[in-house]
Structure of DUF397 domain-containing protein:
Amino acid sequence: MADYPASKDYDPDTAVALFDAAAWQKSFASEPNGGSCVEVNLGSDRVGVRDTKLEDSPVFVFDASEWSAFLAAVKAGQFDLPA
């Protein structure tokens, strides 16, 4: 896997400002008691991901091609745990 240079402007602790606060979506599989979940924000040119359990969660930012590659890998089972 290739390493990519980090953007000098990217700070996961302040990246939440890049996204519309009302557009965060919790997984439909989220536990009702606030268990292990993430929220995504499908911005116009980027995707944000954060932890629902942390009030000031850092936000990880992906561009559209990175997000598409991640979704394809999930659907292909690349991250499945061994049986």
